[in-house]
Structure formats: structure tokens, C-alpha cells
Amino acid sequence: MRINHFPTTVAAAHAVADRIAERLKAKPNLVLGLATGVTMEPVYERLVARHRAGEISFAGASSFNLDEYVGLPPSDPRSYRATMDSQLFDLVDIDKTRTFVPDGLAADPDAFARRYEAMIREAGGIDLQLLGIGRNGHIGFNEPGADFAARTRVVDLDASTLEANSAFFGGATPPTQAMTMGIGTILDSREIIVLATGAVKRDAVRAALTGPVSPDCPATALRNHPNVGWWLDAESGADVAA
Ligand code: F6R
Known about the structure:
Blueprint: E1 2-5, H1 9-26, E2 31-34, H2 41-52, E3 62-65, E4 67-69, H3 80-87, E5 99-100, H4 109-122, E6 128-131, E7 153-156, H5 159-165, E8 177-180, H6 183-187, E9 191-196, H7 202-210, E10 228-232
The structure holds fructose -6-phosphate.
């Protein structure tokens, strides 16, 4: 496990984008695992800027997103599909038929979840998984209590997650369920980058890196993975040494 400290949020996010860019250059058919959320916005901005500057191409890449709200159609701007389209996919040269996001409207969610897992395997597995962290230590939408071996499935969201994400819903409660990759799915990735920024993530980062490995803090599962980097700003990383 590597811990990388940066003085500012932007510096941490841009360093993550630059790491992704490096990986893309080394392996143009990279299989990316992607996250949404406030934390990722400057990462995608930087990737788009580097693409526009002619420095990176996503033409050979494919991607699998971690999660999607149950009940939101892709046309809803608050869906994670729409968010990814507007923040990244529509702004770079990725082949959108190779960008995958769980289907929040699947008529048979269990069957869809099994298919999503199969699609990841058929793509050769995820080379580089980008993760944020919830204030309660969630990764993807694997909330406290989630099994470390869990695969893609529908889950109930915690009250603290609903509250944190209500900002995206004009202060209203977001959908209370999501389909998410499981912790087992995430741990299959060859490399994992966790980006955590801001004072609001300080407790979760401390618990994830120094607390007991336990489903009470899902991000502690990452301590079992051989290739994880944490990218922190001064506020989120205040309690953890490099
Ligand atoms: C989003 C996801 C979540 C977020 C986490 C942090 O796809 O899987 O785990 O990474 O909730 O969200 P922000 O960045 O909004 O604080």
C-alpha cells in the first residue's frame, strides 16, 4: 500500500489523472474501473484537458463504472450514466459502446449483475480501478457490514450516504437503492487508486488505513490488496503518515 500526500485537493486529483494518463499511454486498451462523485470531478476535468491537448487517447480503452442508482434512467442527469457522459465520455474519444455502467432500471437486477461480472471478466478484468470513499468508509456503494467477498448486486444505501448525496438531488432524498460492484469485484482489479479529499473524509481515511480490518469500515478490505495507492490532500490525510 502506498500513501501519497498532496498539499491541495486539486494537486491530488491532478496527480491521479496523470497516473491514469500514464497507464493509458503504456496500455492503450486499458480497462478502467470508474467512480462518480464530487471527488472525481477535477480528475475527469484534467483527463479531458490532457485529451484536448493531444496528450492522451481513450480510443482503445474500455470502462466499467462502480455503481448506479436503482430507478434512475440514463436520461436523468443525476444518473451516474449521464454524469459520466457529461464529465468524461462525451468529451473524449472513448468508444461509448465500450463504456459500461450498471443498469439501474434492469427488470431482473440479479441477472444483470451476473452479466456485468461476466462482461468484466470477458474484457480481461479491470486494470485500474479508481475509487472514492464515503464518509462512512464505503467503497462503491458497499456500505458498512458488506461482505468482503460480495459481487455486483443491489444494495440499500445508508442514511449518511443519502444525506451526503442529497446535494445532487436539490436537497431531496436520492433513490434509496443502488446497484454496485461488490468488494470482491473491486479486489479483483490489478491496481486500485483511492482518491480522498477534504476534511469530511479525514475520519474515514484514518479508519481505512489504521483501524481494524472489518466490514464496519468497508475500505479496510483494501488492506488485503497487493497494489493499492491512496492519494490524499492535506485535510483528508491529516491523521495518516506517508
Ligand atoms: C461513486 C462511488 C462512491 C463515491 C463516494 C464518495 O461512484 O462509488 O463510493 O466515490 O461516495 O463520493 P464523493 O466523491 O461525492 O464524496
